[in-house]
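Ticket #4471: structure output looks truncated?

Reporter: J.K.
Steps to reproduce: submitted the chain below (151 residues) through the standard prediction queue, then opened the result file.
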Amino acid sequence: MCRYRYRHDKISAISGISVSPERKRLGLYCLLYSGNIGQAEVCEFLRHLLKHLRGRVIVLWDSSPVHKGQPIRALCHGFPRLHLEAFPAYAPELNPDEGVWGHLKRSLSNGRPDDLEELIDHLTEEVQRVSTSQPILRGCIRLSRLPLFLP
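Returned output as attached by the reporter:
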C-alpha cells in the first residue's frame, strides 16, 4: 500500500473586472491570500477598489456567505458610493470574473511550481498580463451573459 503525504498549502484570491464608463477602459483588480478568504479580506478588497476607482462603485458578485454580514454592511454604510448587487444564485455564467480565472487556470495548467512562493510569482505575473490586456478582459465579459457592460 502506498501512502501519500498531502500538503495543504493554499492560495485564495478575490478579484473583479472594472468597467470605466467615461474612459471606456477595463481593469482587473486582484488580491491574493495565503489562507481562506473571510469577511475581513472581502472588506479589504472593497477598500482597495474604493481607493483605486473614482465615482460610484457598483460591485456585482455571487451570494457567498463571506459577501454578507455586519462588516460588509458597515463598510457600505461608511462609503455611500459603494453599491453591492448579488448575481442570482448558481449563475456563474453571468460572472465575467469566472472567465478571468478560467484563463488563468489554463495558462498555469502546464506548470509545476516547486513551492507556494513560485506559484504565487507565476500567478502574479499572469494576473498582471491579463490586467493589461483589454482584448482578454473584453473576451471575459463577452463570454458572460453581461455584454451590455462593454463600453
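Triage note (M.O.): checked the attachment and the full C-alpha cell line is present. The chain has a mean pLDDT of 87.
Status: closed, working as intended.
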